[in-house]
Task: inverse folding
Protein backbone atom coordinates (compact mmCIF):
# COMPACT_ATOMS: atom_id res chain seq x y z
CA UNK A 1 0.00 0.00 0.00
CA UNK A 2 1.12 3.55 -0.68
CA UNK A 3 -0.22 6.74 0.77
CA UNK A 4 0.26 10.48 0.83
CA UNK A 5 1.81 11.92 3.98
CA UNK A 6 2.30 15.56 4.79
CA UNK A 7 5.87 16.84 4.95
CA UNK A 8 7.02 19.98 6.81
CA UNK A 9 7.46 21.72 3.46
CA UNK A 10 3.74 21.23 2.80
CA UNK A 11 4.30 18.87 -0.16
CA UNK A 12 3.22 15.28 -0.75
CA UNK A 13 5.40 12.23 -0.82
CA UNK A 14 4.44 8.69 -1.82
CA UNK A 15 5.69 5.98 0.50
CA UNK A 16 5.84 2.42 -0.81
CA UNK A 17 4.41 -0.49 1.11
CA UNK A 18 7.87 -1.77 1.98
CA UNK A 19 8.66 1.45 3.87
CA UNK A 20 5.56 1.53 6.02
CA UNK A 21 6.14 -1.39 8.35
CA UNK A 22 3.78 -4.22 9.30
CA UNK A 23 2.11 -2.46 12.22
CA UNK A 24 1.09 0.70 10.45
CA UNK A 25 -2.28 2.08 11.60
CA UNK A 26 -5.09 2.18 9.10
CA UNK A 27 -6.12 5.61 7.88
CA UNK A 28 -9.66 6.67 8.60
CA UNK A 29 -11.55 7.61 5.47
CA UNK A 30 -13.88 10.53 5.10
CA UNK A 31 -17.44 9.25 4.47
CA UNK A 32 -17.88 8.98 0.74
CA UNK A 33 -21.28 10.61 0.87
CA UNK A 34 -19.93 13.74 2.55
CA UNK A 35 -21.05 17.00 0.97
CA UNK A 36 -18.36 18.28 -1.36
CA UNK A 37 -18.79 20.72 -4.21
CA UNK A 38 -15.91 19.03 -6.00
CA UNK A 39 -17.68 15.67 -6.24
CA UNK A 40 -20.39 14.41 -8.52
CA UNK A 41 -23.88 14.07 -7.16
CA UNK A 42 -23.92 10.46 -8.34
CA UNK A 43 -20.76 8.42 -7.72
CA UNK A 44 -22.00 5.15 -9.26
CA UNK A 45 -20.43 4.67 -12.69
CA UNK A 46 -23.49 3.26 -14.39
CA UNK A 47 -25.62 6.19 -13.22
CA UNK A 48 -23.09 9.00 -13.63
CA UNK A 49 -24.11 9.65 -17.22
CA UNK A 50 -27.79 10.16 -16.41
CA UNK A 51 -28.16 13.93 -16.65
CA UNK A 52 -29.73 16.41 -19.04
CA UNK A 53 -27.55 18.38 -21.42
CA UNK A 54 -28.03 22.11 -20.96
CA UNK A 55 -27.96 24.85 -23.61
CA UNK A 56 -24.90 24.84 -25.84
CA UNK A 57 -23.19 27.80 -27.48
CA UNK A 58 -22.63 26.83 -31.11
CA UNK A 59 -21.50 30.16 -32.56
CA UNK A 60 -17.83 29.94 -33.52
CA UNK A 61 -15.44 32.72 -32.63
CA UNK A 62 -14.64 35.32 -35.24
CA UNK A 63 -12.50 33.81 -37.98
CA UNK A 64 -13.04 30.27 -36.64
CA UNK A 65 -14.59 27.54 -38.76
CA UNK A 66 -17.43 25.37 -37.52
CA UNK A 67 -16.23 22.15 -35.93
CA UNK A 68 -17.71 19.16 -34.17
CA UNK A 69 -17.64 19.27 -30.40
CA UNK A 70 -17.27 16.50 -27.85
CA UNK A 71 -19.68 16.93 -24.96
CA UNK A 72 -18.41 15.78 -21.53
CA UNK A 73 -21.20 13.21 -21.46
CA UNK A 74 -19.35 11.38 -24.22
CA UNK A 75 -16.49 10.64 -21.82
CA UNK A 76 -18.88 8.54 -19.74
CA UNK A 77 -20.62 6.97 -22.75
CA UNK A 78 -17.27 6.09 -24.26
CA UNK A 79 -16.12 4.45 -21.02
CA UNK A 80 -19.17 2.15 -20.89
CA UNK A 81 -17.41 -0.01 -23.49
CA UNK A 82 -15.63 -1.46 -20.44
CA UNK A 83 -18.27 -3.58 -18.72
CA UNK A 84 -15.54 -5.00 -16.46
CA UNK A 85 -13.28 -2.80 -14.32
CA UNK A 86 -10.28 -5.12 -14.74
CA UNK A 87 -10.57 -4.70 -18.51
CA UNK A 88 -9.99 -0.98 -17.97
CA UNK A 89 -6.95 -1.64 -15.76
CA UNK A 90 -5.59 -3.97 -18.45
CA UNK A 91 -5.66 -1.10 -20.96
CA UNK A 92 -3.36 0.94 -18.72
CA UNK A 93 -1.06 -2.05 -18.22
CA UNK A 94 -0.93 -2.42 -22.02
CA UNK A 95 0.31 1.16 -22.34
CA UNK A 96 3.12 0.41 -19.89
CA UNK A 97 3.99 -2.88 -21.62
CA UNK A 98 4.19 -1.05 -24.96
CA UNK A 99 6.82 1.15 -23.34
CA UNK A 100 9.16 -1.84 -23.15
CA UNK A 101 10.22 -0.72 -26.62
CA UNK A 102 11.38 2.53 -24.99
CA UNK A 103 13.29 0.87 -22.16
CA UNK A 104 10.59 0.36 -19.52
CA UNK A 105 11.42 -2.28 -16.91
CA UNK A 106 8.43 -2.04 -14.58
CA UNK A 107 4.94 -0.71 -13.99
CA UNK A 108 3.65 -0.20 -10.47
CA UNK A 109 -0.02 -0.42 -9.57
CA UNK A 110 -0.99 0.66 -6.08
CA UNK A 111 -3.48 2.42 -3.88
CA UNK A 112 -2.64 5.87 -2.58
CA UNK A 113 -4.59 8.37 -0.50
CA UNK A 114 -5.60 11.91 -1.33
CA UNK A 115 -4.36 14.51 1.13
CA UNK A 116 -7.49 16.59 0.70
CA UNK A 117 -10.20 14.13 1.77
CA UNK A 118 -8.27 10.93 2.58
CA UNK A 119 -10.11 9.05 -0.17
CA UNK A 120 -8.33 6.21 -2.02
CA UNK A 121 -6.90 6.71 -5.48
CA UNK A 122 -5.37 4.34 -8.01
CA UNK A 123 -1.73 4.82 -9.03
CA UNK A 124 0.06 3.62 -12.20
CA UNK A 125 3.76 4.39 -12.52
CA UNK A 126 6.17 3.22 -15.23
CA UNK A 127 9.72 4.11 -16.25
CA UNK A 128 9.14 4.08 -20.00
CA UNK A 129 10.08 6.82 -22.43
CA UNK A 130 7.39 9.18 -21.13
CA UNK A 131 5.45 11.78 -23.14
CA UNK A 132 6.63 15.16 -24.34
CA UNK A 133 4.14 18.06 -24.58
CA UNK A 134 2.93 16.90 -27.99
CA UNK A 135 2.61 13.29 -26.81
CA UNK A 136 0.55 14.07 -23.71
CA UNK A 137 -1.84 16.17 -25.80
CA UNK A 138 -2.37 13.26 -28.15
CA UNK A 139 -2.86 10.97 -25.15
CA UNK A 140 -5.57 13.26 -23.75
CA UNK A 141 -7.30 13.59 -27.13
CA UNK A 142 -9.54 11.10 -28.91
CA UNK A 143 -8.35 8.91 -31.74
CA UNK A 144 -4.66 9.86 -31.78
CA UNK A 145 -2.28 6.91 -31.74
CA UNK A 146 1.40 6.76 -32.62
CA UNK A 147 1.53 2.99 -32.13
CA UNK A 148 1.77 1.64 -35.66
CA UNK A 149 4.25 -1.21 -35.22
CA UNK A 150 3.23 -4.86 -35.04
CA UNK A 151 4.76 -5.36 -31.59
CA UNK A 152 2.53 -2.89 -29.74
CA UNK A 153 -0.84 -3.72 -28.21
CA UNK A 154 -2.52 -0.31 -28.39
CA UNK A 155 -3.77 0.85 -31.77
CA UNK A 156 -7.00 2.85 -31.55
CA UNK A 157 -5.91 5.92 -29.55
CA UNK A 158 -8.89 5.54 -27.23
CA UNK A 159 -7.78 3.19 -24.45
CA UNK A 160 -6.49 5.78 -21.99
CA UNK A 161 -9.73 7.79 -22.02
CA UNK A 162 -12.09 4.81 -21.76
CA UNK A 163 -10.07 3.03 -19.07
CA UNK A 164 -9.43 5.96 -16.74
CA UNK A 165 -13.00 7.25 -16.96
CA UNK A 166 -14.27 3.71 -16.26
CA UNK A 167 -12.27 3.49 -13.02
CA UNK A 168 -12.81 6.98 -11.63
CA UNK A 169 -14.35 10.33 -12.40
CA UNK A 170 -11.00 12.12 -12.64
CA UNK A 171 -7.40 11.45 -13.64
CA UNK A 172 -4.22 13.50 -13.50
CA UNK A 173 -1.16 12.51 -15.55
CA UNK A 174 2.49 13.39 -14.92
CA UNK A 175 5.03 12.55 -17.61
CA UNK A 176 8.70 13.27 -18.08
CA UNK A 177 10.51 12.74 -21.39
CA UNK A 178 13.69 13.53 -23.30
CA UNK A 179 13.25 14.24 -27.02
CA UNK A 180 15.67 15.77 -29.50
CA UNK A 181 18.03 17.08 -26.83
CA UNK A 182 15.23 18.64 -24.79
CA UNK A 183 14.01 17.39 -21.39
CA UNK A 184 10.41 18.20 -20.52
CA UNK A 185 7.82 17.38 -17.92
CA UNK A 186 4.08 17.78 -18.45
CA UNK A 187 0.90 17.58 -16.39
CA UNK A 188 -2.57 16.93 -17.80
CA UNK A 189 -5.95 16.81 -16.05
CA UNK A 190 -8.96 14.96 -17.45
CA UNK A 191 -11.72 15.69 -14.94
CA UNK A 192 -15.29 14.58 -15.51
CA UNK A 193 -16.14 16.24 -12.20
CA UNK A 194 -14.74 19.60 -13.33
CA UNK A 195 -16.58 19.43 -16.65
CA UNK A 196 -19.88 18.51 -15.00
CA UNK A 197 -19.69 20.92 -12.07
CA UNK A 198 -18.75 23.90 -14.22
CA UNK A 199 -21.33 23.11 -16.90
CA UNK A 200 -18.89 22.80 -19.79
CA UNK A 201 -20.31 21.87 -23.20
CA UNK A 202 -16.96 20.77 -24.62
CA UNK A 203 -14.17 18.60 -23.20
CA UNK A 204 -11.62 20.99 -21.73
CA UNK A 205 -8.34 19.42 -20.57
CA UNK A 206 -6.02 21.73 -18.59
CA UNK A 207 -2.34 21.05 -19.33
CA UNK A 208 0.94 22.68 -18.33
CA UNK A 209 4.48 21.93 -19.46
CA UNK A 210 7.98 22.63 -18.15
CA UNK A 211 11.37 22.67 -19.82
CA UNK A 212 13.83 20.99 -17.43
CA UNK A 213 16.85 20.87 -19.72
CA UNK A 214 18.66 23.29 -17.39
CA UNK A 215 17.70 21.20 -14.35
CA UNK A 216 15.02 23.58 -13.09
CA UNK A 217 11.45 23.80 -14.35
CA UNK A 218 10.77 26.64 -16.75
CA UNK A 219 7.17 27.01 -17.99
CA UNK A 220 6.64 26.29 -21.68
CA UNK A 221 4.11 28.73 -23.15
CA UNK A 222 1.93 27.79 -26.14
CA UNK A 223 -0.23 30.87 -25.64
CA UNK A 224 0.03 33.71 -23.18
CA UNK A 225 1.27 33.64 -19.60
CA UNK A 226 -2.33 34.16 -18.51
CA UNK A 227 -3.39 31.02 -20.39
CA UNK A 228 -0.68 28.99 -18.65
CA UNK A 229 -1.71 30.39 -15.26
CA UNK A 230 -5.38 29.60 -15.92
CA UNK A 231 -4.52 25.99 -16.69
CA UNK A 232 -2.49 25.76 -13.48
CA UNK A 233 -5.27 27.36 -11.42
CA UNK A 234 -7.86 24.88 -12.76
CA UNK A 235 -5.59 21.95 -11.93
CA UNK A 236 -5.05 23.11 -8.37
CA UNK A 237 -8.78 23.62 -7.87
CA UNK A 238 -9.93 20.25 -9.23
CA UNK A 239 -7.02 17.89 -8.47
CA UNK A 240 -5.77 16.44 -5.15
CA UNK A 241 -2.93 18.99 -5.18
CA UNK A 242 -3.23 22.54 -3.88
CA UNK A 243 0.01 24.21 -5.02
CA UNK A 244 2.44 24.30 -7.90
CA UNK A 245 5.16 22.88 -5.65
CA UNK A 246 3.00 19.85 -4.87
CA UNK A 247 2.53 19.21 -8.57
CA UNK A 248 6.27 19.40 -9.25
CA UNK A 249 6.93 17.13 -6.25
CA UNK A 250 5.07 14.32 -8.02
CA UNK A 251 7.85 14.02 -10.61
CA UNK A 252 10.47 12.96 -8.06
CA UNK A 253 9.60 9.25 -8.11
CA UNK A 254 9.37 9.21 -11.93
CA UNK A 255 13.08 9.66 -12.49
CA UNK A 256 14.53 11.01 -15.72
CA UNK A 257 11.71 9.58 -17.85
CA UNK A 258 8.43 7.83 -17.32
CA UNK A 259 4.72 8.37 -16.69
CA UNK A 260 2.62 8.57 -13.54
CA UNK A 261 -1.18 8.28 -13.60
CA UNK A 262 -3.39 8.99 -10.59
CA UNK A 263 -7.08 8.14 -10.89
CA UNK A 264 -9.14 9.64 -8.08
CA UNK A 265 -12.82 9.99 -7.14
CA UNK A 266 -13.07 6.25 -7.79
CA UNK A 267 -16.49 4.92 -8.73
CA UNK A 268 -18.83 3.28 -6.24
CA UNK A 269 -21.13 0.30 -6.67
CA UNK A 270 -24.91 0.43 -6.31
CA UNK A 271 -24.57 0.08 -2.53
CA UNK A 272 -22.42 3.19 -2.25
CA UNK A 273 -19.16 1.28 -1.58
CA UNK A 274 -15.99 1.55 -3.63
CA UNK A 275 -16.12 -0.83 -6.58
CA UNK A 276 -12.45 -1.75 -6.12
CA UNK A 277 -11.69 -3.55 -2.88
CA UNK A 278 -8.24 -2.71 -1.48
CA UNK A 279 -8.79 -4.05 2.04
CA UNK A 280 -9.39 -7.80 1.60
CA UNK A 281 -5.83 -8.53 0.46
CA UNK A 282 -2.92 -6.12 1.00
CA UNK A 283 -1.12 -7.56 -2.04
CA UNK A 284 -4.08 -7.54 -4.40
CA UNK A 285 -6.99 -5.49 -5.71
CA UNK A 286 -10.34 -7.26 -5.75
CA UNK A 287 -13.70 -6.56 -7.30
CA UNK A 288 -16.01 -6.13 -4.33
CA UNK A 289 -19.29 -7.31 -5.93
CA UNK A 290 -17.75 -10.47 -7.37
CA UNK A 291 -16.05 -11.34 -4.08
CA UNK A 292 -19.34 -11.02 -2.21
CA UNK A 293 -21.04 -13.35 -4.68
CA UNK A 294 -18.38 -16.03 -4.30
CA UNK A 295 -18.70 -15.98 -0.50
CA UNK A 296 -22.27 -17.29 -0.80
CA UNK A 297 -21.36 -20.41 -2.80
CA UNK A 298 -21.39 -23.98 -1.53
CA UNK A 299 -18.09 -25.69 -0.70
CA UNK A 300 -18.14 -27.75 -3.90
CA UNK A 301 -18.82 -24.70 -6.02
CA UNK A 302 -16.20 -22.73 -4.08
CA UNK A 303 -13.59 -25.42 -4.76
CA UNK A 304 -14.29 -25.13 -8.48
CA UNK A 305 -14.17 -21.35 -8.36
CA UNK A 306 -10.80 -21.46 -6.62
CA UNK A 307 -9.45 -22.31 -10.08
CA UNK A 308 -7.70 -19.45 -11.84
CA UNK A 309 -10.42 -19.36 -14.51
CA UNK A 310 -12.74 -18.00 -11.81
CA UNK A 311 -10.20 -16.16 -9.67
CA UNK A 312 -9.20 -13.90 -12.54
CA UNK A 313 -12.75 -12.53 -12.55
CA UNK A 314 -12.31 -10.87 -9.15
CA UNK A 315 -8.55 -10.86 -8.40
CA UNK A 316 -6.33 -8.42 -10.29
CA UNK A 317 -3.22 -10.42 -9.37
CA UNK A 318 -4.73 -13.58 -10.88
CA UNK A 319 -5.86 -11.72 -14.00
CA UNK A 320 -2.51 -9.96 -14.48
CA UNK A 321 -0.68 -13.31 -14.15
CA UNK A 322 -2.34 -14.64 -17.34
CA UNK A 323 -2.80 -11.32 -19.16
CA UNK A 324 0.28 -11.80 -21.36
CA UNK A 325 1.13 -15.05 -23.11
CA UNK A 326 4.91 -14.82 -23.23
CA UNK A 327 6.84 -14.14 -20.07
CA UNK A 328 8.72 -10.86 -19.84
CA UNK A 329 12.50 -10.99 -19.68
CA UNK A 330 13.28 -7.57 -18.20
CA UNK A 331 9.91 -6.20 -17.19
CA UNK A 332 7.76 -6.59 -14.08
CA UNK A 333 4.21 -5.76 -13.10
CA UNK A 334 4.44 -4.73 -9.45
CA UNK A 335 1.03 -4.89 -7.81
CA UNK A 336 0.86 -3.25 -4.39
CA UNK A 337 4.56 -3.72 -3.78
CA UNK A 338 4.85 -7.34 -4.94
CA UNK A 339 5.74 -8.49 -8.50
CA UNK A 340 3.09 -10.47 -10.35
CA UNK A 341 4.25 -13.98 -11.24
CA UNK A 342 3.27 -14.72 -14.83
CA UNK A 343 1.49 -17.98 -15.50
CA UNK A 344 0.67 -19.91 -18.66
CA UNK A 345 -1.85 -22.67 -18.05
CA UNK A 346 -0.45 -24.56 -21.04
CA UNK A 347 2.58 -25.37 -18.89
CA UNK A 348 0.39 -27.40 -16.50
CA UNK A 349 -1.80 -29.24 -19.01
CA UNK A 350 -1.83 -33.03 -18.96
CA UNK A 351 -1.28 -34.88 -22.24
CA UNK A 352 -0.87 -31.62 -24.21
CA UNK A 353 -1.40 -31.67 -27.96
CA UNK A 354 -0.06 -28.89 -30.20
CA UNK A 355 -2.17 -28.25 -33.29
CA UNK A 356 -1.32 -25.75 -36.01
CA UNK A 357 -4.34 -24.16 -37.67
CA UNK A 358 -3.84 -22.20 -40.89
CA UNK A 359 -6.97 -20.14 -41.55
CA UNK A 360 -7.82 -18.87 -45.00
CA UNK A 361 -7.73 -15.14 -44.27
CA UNK A 362 -7.12 -13.92 -47.81
CA UNK A 363 -5.44 -15.06 -50.99
CA UNK A 364 -2.43 -12.86 -50.22
CA UNK A 365 -1.89 -13.39 -46.46
CA UNK A 366 -1.05 -16.75 -44.92
CA UNK A 367 -1.80 -16.84 -41.20
CA UNK A 368 -1.36 -19.60 -38.66
CA UNK A 369 -2.19 -20.23 -35.04
CA UNK A 370 -0.44 -22.75 -32.82
CA UNK A 371 -2.97 -24.14 -30.37
CA UNK A 372 -1.98 -26.13 -27.29
CA UNK A 373 -4.77 -28.10 -25.67
CA UNK A 374 -4.96 -30.73 -22.99
CA UNK A 375 -6.60 -31.66 -19.69
CA UNK A 376 -6.24 -29.40 -16.68
CA UNK A 377 -4.40 -31.03 -13.81
CA UNK A 378 -7.61 -31.08 -11.70
CA UNK A 379 -9.57 -33.09 -14.31
CA UNK A 380 -11.88 -34.95 -14.06
CA UNK A 381 -12.76 -33.60 -10.60
CA UNK A 382 -13.26 -30.09 -12.00
CA UNK A 383 -14.99 -29.73 -15.34
CA UNK A 384 -13.53 -26.42 -16.47
CA UNK A 385 -13.20 -26.02 -20.22
CA UNK A 386 -12.40 -23.29 -22.73
CA UNK A 387 -9.69 -21.59 -24.78
CA UNK A 388 -7.47 -18.70 -23.69
CA UNK A 389 -7.24 -16.68 -26.91
CA UNK A 390 -4.52 -14.04 -27.16
CA UNK A 391 -3.87 -11.31 -29.71
CA UNK A 392 -0.36 -9.83 -29.98
CA UNK A 393 0.57 -11.51 -26.70
CA UNK A 394 -2.47 -9.97 -24.87
CA UNK A 395 -5.31 -12.10 -23.48
CA UNK A 396 -8.57 -11.18 -25.19
CA UNK A 397 -10.96 -14.04 -24.36
CA UNK A 398 -10.17 -16.09 -21.24
CA UNK A 399 -11.56 -19.62 -21.12
CA UNK A 400 -13.77 -19.15 -24.16
CA UNK A 401 -16.34 -21.96 -24.25
CA UNK A 402 -16.85 -23.02 -27.84
CA UNK A 403 -19.25 -25.86 -26.98
CA UNK A 404 -22.83 -25.35 -25.86
CA UNK A 405 -23.77 -25.43 -22.19
CA UNK A 406 -24.59 -28.96 -21.03
CA UNK A 407 -22.57 -30.61 -23.80
CA UNK A 408 -21.50 -34.06 -22.64
CA UNK A 409 -18.02 -33.95 -24.15
CA UNK A 410 -14.93 -31.87 -23.57
CA UNK A 411 -15.02 -31.35 -19.79
CA UNK A 412 -11.58 -30.57 -18.41
CA UNK A 413 -10.06 -29.64 -21.80
CA UNK A 414 -8.38 -26.24 -21.96
CA UNK A 415 -6.55 -24.68 -24.89
CA UNK A 416 -4.20 -21.73 -25.44
CA UNK A 417 -3.58 -19.95 -28.74
CA UNK A 418 -2.52 -16.60 -30.18
CA UNK A 419 -4.86 -15.44 -32.95
CA UNK A 420 -3.24 -12.44 -34.61
CA UNK A 421 -5.31 -12.88 -37.77
CA UNK A 422 -8.53 -11.52 -36.21
CA UNK A 423 -9.06 -8.05 -34.77
CA UNK A 424 -10.04 -7.47 -31.14
CA UNK A 425 -12.93 -5.23 -30.14
CA UNK A 426 -12.16 -1.77 -28.80
CA UNK A 427 -12.34 -2.90 -25.16
CA UNK A 428 -10.00 -5.83 -25.93
CA UNK A 429 -12.32 -8.24 -24.12
CA UNK A 430 -13.69 -9.88 -27.25
CA UNK A 431 -13.08 -10.15 -30.99
CA UNK A 432 -14.88 -8.43 -33.82
CA UNK A 433 -17.52 -10.72 -35.29
CA UNK A 434 -16.49 -11.79 -38.78
CA UNK A 435 -16.46 -14.86 -40.99
CA UNK A 436 -12.87 -15.52 -39.89
CA UNK A 437 -13.98 -15.44 -36.25
CA UNK A 438 -16.85 -17.86 -36.94
CA UNK A 439 -14.53 -20.28 -38.72
CA UNK A 440 -12.09 -20.11 -35.80
CA UNK A 441 -14.89 -20.92 -33.37
CA UNK A 442 -15.91 -23.98 -35.37
CA UNK A 443 -12.30 -25.07 -35.76
CA UNK A 444 -11.68 -24.89 -32.01
CA UNK A 445 -14.85 -26.89 -31.39
CA UNK A 446 -13.64 -29.53 -33.83
CA UNK A 447 -10.20 -29.62 -32.14
CA UNK A 448 -11.80 -30.06 -28.73
CA UNK A 449 -14.08 -32.88 -29.89
CA UNK A 450 -11.27 -34.70 -31.65
CA UNK A 451 -9.04 -34.41 -28.60
CA UNK A 452 -11.83 -35.74 -26.36
CA UNK A 453 -12.43 -38.77 -28.59
CA UNK A 454 -8.76 -39.72 -28.58
CA UNK A 455 -7.84 -38.94 -24.98
CA UNK A 456 -10.87 -39.01 -22.67
CA UNK A 457 -9.97 -42.50 -21.42
CA UNK A 458 -6.65 -41.15 -20.11
CA UNK A 459 -8.38 -39.36 -17.23
CA UNK A 460 -10.81 -42.11 -16.32
CA UNK A 461 -13.70 -41.71 -18.75
CA UNK A 462 -14.90 -44.56 -20.91
CA UNK A 463 -13.51 -44.40 -24.46
CA UNK A 464 -15.70 -42.56 -26.91
CA UNK A 465 -17.97 -45.11 -28.71
CA UNK A 466 -17.72 -43.41 -32.11
CA UNK A 467 -13.94 -43.30 -31.84
CA UNK A 468 -13.83 -46.99 -30.90
CA UNK A 469 -15.92 -47.87 -33.93
CA UNK A 470 -13.55 -45.98 -36.18
CA UNK A 471 -10.59 -47.70 -34.54
CA UNK A 472 -12.17 -51.09 -35.18
CA UNK A 473 -12.71 -50.23 -38.82
CA UNK A 474 -9.09 -49.23 -39.25
CA UNK A 475 -7.87 -52.19 -37.14
CA UNK A 476 -5.77 -49.95 -34.89
CA UNK A 477 -5.95 -51.01 -31.22
CA UNK A 478 -6.91 -48.36 -28.69
CA UNK A 479 -4.25 -47.57 -26.12
CA UNK A 480 -5.16 -49.40 -22.93
CA UNK A 481 -4.21 -48.96 -19.33
CA UNK A 482 -0.55 -49.68 -18.69
CA UNK A 483 0.60 -49.13 -22.29
CA UNK A 484 3.29 -46.50 -22.78
CA UNK A 485 2.28 -43.12 -24.16
CA UNK A 486 3.35 -42.04 -27.63
CA UNK A 487 6.99 -41.13 -27.79
CA UNK A 488 8.58 -38.51 -30.01
CA UNK A 489 10.84 -40.18 -32.59
CA UNK A 490 12.99 -37.94 -34.79
CA UNK A 491 11.95 -38.13 -38.41
CA UNK A 492 8.65 -39.90 -37.68
CA UNK A 493 5.13 -38.80 -36.92
CA UNK A 494 4.59 -38.48 -33.19
CA UNK A 495 1.08 -39.89 -33.05
CA UNK A 496 0.65 -43.06 -35.18
CA UNK A 497 -3.11 -43.07 -34.73
CA UNK A 498 -5.06 -42.52 -37.97
CA UNK A 499 -5.88 -38.94 -38.94
CA UNK A 500 -9.59 -38.49 -38.37
CA UNK A 501 -10.26 -35.85 -41.00
CA UNK A 502 -7.46 -33.67 -39.62
CA UNK A 503 -5.46 -33.52 -42.83
CA UNK A 504 -8.61 -32.92 -44.80
CA UNK A 505 -9.35 -29.85 -42.70
CA UNK A 506 -6.02 -28.10 -43.10
CA UNK A 507 -4.81 -29.04 -39.60
CA UNK A 508 -1.26 -30.09 -38.84
CA UNK A 509 -0.75 -31.84 -35.51
CA UNK A 510 2.16 -32.82 -33.35
CA UNK A 511 1.76 -34.34 -29.92
CA UNK A 512 4.00 -33.61 -26.95
CA UNK A 513 3.04 -35.68 -23.92
CA UNK A 514 4.33 -35.05 -20.43
CA UNK A 515 5.65 -37.96 -18.42
CA UNK A 516 2.34 -38.26 -16.58
CA UNK A 517 1.26 -41.85 -16.04
CA UNK A 518 -0.86 -41.15 -12.97
CA UNK A 519 -4.19 -41.61 -14.75
CA UNK A 520 -3.59 -43.51 -17.99
CA UNK A 521 -6.71 -45.53 -17.29
CA UNK A 522 -9.58 -45.25 -14.84
CA UNK A 523 -8.62 -45.71 -11.18
CA UNK A 524 -9.93 -48.80 -9.41
CA UNK A 525 -13.59 -48.46 -8.57
CA UNK A 526 -13.85 -45.10 -10.39
CA UNK A 527 -16.93 -44.54 -12.49
CA UNK A 528 -18.28 -41.17 -13.53
CA UNK A 529 -21.95 -40.31 -13.59
CA UNK A 530 -21.28 -38.63 -16.91
CA UNK A 531 -20.31 -41.96 -18.48
CA UNK A 532 -23.53 -43.55 -17.26
CA UNK A 533 -25.54 -40.65 -18.55
CA UNK A 534 -23.96 -40.84 -21.99
CA UNK A 535 -24.52 -44.58 -22.12
CA UNK A 536 -28.17 -44.47 -21.21
CA UNK A 537 -29.50 -41.31 -22.82
CA UNK A 538 -30.21 -41.56 -26.51
CA UNK A 539 -31.03 -37.86 -26.73
CA UNK A 540 -27.54 -36.89 -25.54
CA UNK A 541 -26.02 -39.23 -28.11
CA UNK A 542 -28.21 -37.75 -30.78
CA UNK A 543 -27.14 -34.21 -29.85
CA UNK A 544 -23.48 -35.21 -29.96
CA UNK A 545 -23.91 -36.88 -33.34
CA UNK A 546 -25.67 -33.82 -34.73
CA UNK A 547 -22.87 -31.59 -33.43
CA UNK A 548 -20.27 -33.87 -34.99
CA UNK A 549 -22.12 -33.89 -38.29
CA UNK A 550 -22.42 -30.12 -38.18
CA UNK A 551 -18.67 -29.77 -37.61
CA UNK A 552 -17.90 -32.14 -40.48
CA UNK A 553 -20.21 -30.23 -42.82
CA UNK A 554 -18.61 -26.96 -41.79
CA UNK A 555 -15.16 -28.33 -42.42
CA UNK A 556 -16.20 -29.61 -45.84
CA UNK A 557 -17.58 -26.14 -46.58
CA UNK A 558 -14.29 -24.57 -45.55
CA UNK A 559 -12.50 -27.14 -47.69
CA UNK A 560 -14.51 -26.02 -50.70
CA UNK A 561 -13.87 -22.37 -49.87
CA UNK A 562 -10.15 -23.01 -49.67
CA UNK A 563 -10.27 -24.92 -52.94
CA UNK A 564 -12.19 -22.04 -54.50
CA UNK A 565 -9.48 -19.59 -53.40
CA UNK A 566 -6.82 -21.87 -54.84
CA UNK A 567 -8.69 -22.10 -58.15
CA UNK A 568 -9.09 -18.32 -58.24
CA UNK A 569 -5.35 -17.95 -57.73
CA UNK A 570 -4.71 -20.49 -60.49
CA UNK A 571 -7.07 -18.63 -62.84
CA UNK A 572 -5.33 -15.33 -62.07
CA UNK A 573 -1.95 -16.89 -62.78
CA UNK A 574 -3.19 -18.38 -66.03
CA UNK A 575 -4.70 -15.08 -67.10
CA UNK A 576 -1.38 -13.39 -66.44
CA UNK A 577 0.39 -16.05 -68.52
CA UNK A 578 -2.12 -15.60 -71.35
CA UNK A 579 -1.65 -11.83 -71.27
CA UNK A 580 2.13 -12.28 -71.28
CA UNK A 581 1.92 -14.72 -74.17
CA UNK A 582 -0.28 -12.30 -76.16
CA UNK A 583 2.22 -9.54 -75.52
CA UNK A 584 5.09 -11.70 -76.75
CA UNK A 585 3.07 -12.74 -79.85
CA UNK A 586 2.39 -9.07 -80.64
CA UNK A 587 6.09 -8.27 -80.32
CA UNK A 588 7.02 -11.18 -82.64
CA UNK A 589 4.37 -10.11 -85.16
CA UNK A 590 5.74 -6.58 -85.15
CA UNK A 591 9.28 -7.82 -85.72
CA UNK A 592 8.19 -10.14 -88.55
CA UNK A 593 6.25 -7.33 -90.20
CA UNK A 594 9.30 -5.08 -89.92
CA UNK A 595 11.54 -7.75 -91.46
CA UNK A 596 9.05 -8.32 -94.27
CA UNK A 597 8.98 -4.62 -95.14
CA UNK A 598 12.76 -4.39 -95.08
CA UNK A 599 12.95 -7.36 -97.46
CA UNK A 600 10.49 -5.74 -99.89
CA UNK A 601 12.48 -2.50 -99.90
CA UNK A 602 15.64 -4.36 -100.85
Result:
Amino acid sequence: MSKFVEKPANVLEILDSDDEGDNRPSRPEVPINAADDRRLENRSFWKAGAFDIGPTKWNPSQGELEHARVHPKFLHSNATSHKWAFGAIAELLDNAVDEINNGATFVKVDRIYSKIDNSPALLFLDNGGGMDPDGIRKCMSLGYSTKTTNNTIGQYGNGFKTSTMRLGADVIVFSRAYRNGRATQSVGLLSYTFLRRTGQDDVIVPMIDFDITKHWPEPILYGTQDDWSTNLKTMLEWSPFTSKDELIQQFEDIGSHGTKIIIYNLWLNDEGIYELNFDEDEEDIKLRDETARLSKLSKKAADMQAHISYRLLHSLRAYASVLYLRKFKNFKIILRGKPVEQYNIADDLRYPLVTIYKPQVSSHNQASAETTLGFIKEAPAIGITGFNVYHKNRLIRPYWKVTAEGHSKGFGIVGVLEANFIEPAHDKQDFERSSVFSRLEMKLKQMQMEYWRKHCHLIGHQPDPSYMRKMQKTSVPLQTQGEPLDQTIPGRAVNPRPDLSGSQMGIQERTVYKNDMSMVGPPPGFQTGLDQEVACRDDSRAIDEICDENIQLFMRCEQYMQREEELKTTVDDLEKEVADTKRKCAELSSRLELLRRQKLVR
Residues 1-35, 478-538 have pLDDT under 50 and may be disordered. The radius of gyration is 31 Å. The CA atoms of residues 12 and 195 lie 26 Å apart. The first strand starts at residue 3 and ends at 6.
